[in-house]
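Continuing the batch. This is chain 6 of the set; chains 1 through 5 are on the previous pages. Same settings as before, nothing changed between runs. Recording input and output for traceability.
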Amino acid sequence: MLDLVRAWLFPPACAGCEARGPALCADCAPTLRDAIDFEVDGVQAFALGGYEGALRRAIVALKHGERDPLDALGELLAARAPVIGTLIPLPTSRGRSDARGFDQSVELVRRIARGRGLPHAELLRKRGAPQDGRSRLARLRAAGRFRLERDVALPPTVTLVDDVCTTGATVRDAMQTLTAAGVAIRRLVFVARTAPDRRIEPAS
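Output for chain 6:
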């Protein structure tokens, strides 16, 4: 009921041009040519585009607790992201998800899984302080932020999903936790990637 009232009072609008409708209209959504293919420690990674423009504004909206971009971003990832095995979200901290009312990576994984008919599981729990406000060096030095959920069956192969790849430190930390448990990580999927030579620090 609250979501219906909110939608009536504040109808969805494009994060790029503010036109009423989807959170990313056809003119502002990233195109196939915007996609970025790269590697993190030898694992193939994919992002819909760079962390800029309308894509950045849509992600920032998520981080401020707005749900509108979830469907648009989930649909784009379901259509374009190369995935193998079970989809695994890189969760934010419990405090962050409670404050927002949802965990954006978990919600995106659910939408990708539904769109592609793929299995998904929440294997990881994040602990420690959030990454926003930390310097690039502090991000790279941070470790041990993830642990496995208890009593969860571990799939043999997985694709990890997160919203933004900045330094790669967060996903490397998750990869180490899963690899140590015998899980093979085949793909990494992100909504956006910051340019390697820029030091943008999006909130976790």
